[in-house]
Amino acid sequence: KYVVSTNVDGLHRRSGVQPSQLSELHGNSYLEHCKQCQREYMRQFVVIPDGVMPHHLTGRSCDNCQGLLTDSIINFGESLPEQPLDLALQHSKKA
What we know:
Mean pLDDT: 94
Order of helices and strands: EHEEEEEH
Number of helices: 2
Structural class: alpha+beta
Shape: globular
Number of strands: 6
Distance between the termini: 9 Å
Radius of gyration: 14 Å
Strand content: 15-25%
Strand order of the largest sheet: 4-3-6-5
Low-confidence stretches: none
Helix content: 10-25%
């Protein structure tokens, strides 16, 4: 089974749905991503900073490579992420 979600609350992952079985089309407010080494961090707190940060930066850095971490939220006017969207379309055709 595969889950396609537009929720950003992270509940699908917290309920045990594996990331490989999930497309979070609008992102996840608890997920940070390192653009440099691709590592992901699933946090216990909302990663979006209170202040304005450019380019989705969260103000934290990667434990692995010290790269800058970004949130995964899709804001108005931004395109949906290509890979999760492609997977969502593939799996929905099989349903």
